[in-house]
Amino acid sequence: MARTILENIVIQQYKDQTFFSFCEYTNIRFFEILYFESGSGRIKINGKTVNYTSNSVFVFIPDDIYIVEAETATSSIAIKFLKSFFRNTNAQNQELPVNDWFRKIEEILNSESHELRDMQFETTSDRSHLVSLVNMVASEYLNTQTHDIFIIQNSLSVILHLIARNIQFINTSEVKEIKSSKIQQIINYIHSNIYNPELLTTKSLANEFFMADNYISEYFKKHTDVSLKKYIINYKLKLVETRLKYTDAQDSEIALELGFTDSSHLNKTFKAYKGVSLSTFKASLA
After folding, report:
1. Residues 96-105: contacts with CB within 8 Å, 24+ apart?
2. What digits encode the pLDDT tens for the residues 22-38?
């Protein structure tokens, strides 16, 4: 059964189930981690079918729809962040590292490798660490007598970090045979450091990837057909859209976080690249 200790996070644990009903939280879920402790079967995700086995891990983002079809008795744990969790309207969440968690999930939302399969891990230890933490969170969260918010909070932080790190590993692995892996490494580095503009200057990137200052931009453009500067701005604006859609952050707060001079600078850049103002974009979300 689901319980709510952290406001707008739901954790569900199922033991030896052979039937799973449709997820009632789909329409209000922002992000979900689904771990299959044991059992086997199929999971239909957005109309496509993949298999799951013991120790399979899946992640889901807004608008993903899935249903589990068990072939053998299945035990699983689901951790669901509801959309309202990242809207700062509830005092119960004020002591949590909500913004840090959102940043980790942003990395996953903007990856092409989060869906439609059992998640892959760079090392077996990363998978085992994640599994241990998921079990720990579920045990603490569902215990009505002794739940410890400190354990839950810190375990969730590490879980999100592990998933974001391994999503990057998947991206790097998949591109090795189709394009330069160094390009994907540069892209991953940009994504990981998007809130640290001093690390994304041409000079800093050139030093990080052992290239000449005057060559890295040319190299990036050659392999992506987009200039380095334009790629960074486009990625920042993707994050702006995500924050406008799923949080209550003010334009000025978003501008400050992403390295724009002020909300006016952000609005001008957004309109130049997206063709609409921030206010028009927000109105379209209503």
Report:
1. 96/6, 96/153, 97/153, 97/157, 100/157, 101/156, 101/157, 101/160, 102/243, 102/246, 102/247, 103/195, 104/160, 104/161, 104/163, 104/164, 105/30, 105/31, 105/81, 105/160, 105/164
2. 777 888 888 999 999 99
Token match 């086997």: residue? 40
Q: Ramachandran region of residue 61, left (φ > 0), alpha (ψ -120 to 50) or beta?
A: beta
Helix count (H) and strand count (E) of the chain?
10, 7
- DSSP of 156-176: HHHHHHHHHHHHHHHHHHHHT
Q: What is the pTM of this model?
A: 0.79
Domain presence at residue 184: no
User: Tens of pLDDT along 96-145?
Assistant: 677 888 888 887 777 655 555 688 898 999 999 999 999 999 998 887 66
Could you list the residue range(s) of the whole structural domain that residue 49 is in? 9-174
Ranges 166-175, 176-185, 219-228: which has the least confidence: 166-175
Decide: 285 and 246 in contact? Cβ < 8 Å: no
Please report, to the nearest 10 degrees, the dihedral formed by the alpha carbons of residues 130, 132, 135, 137 taken in order: -70
With residue 215 as reference, give the H or E element that holds it. helix 213-224
CATH number, position 31: 2.60.120.280
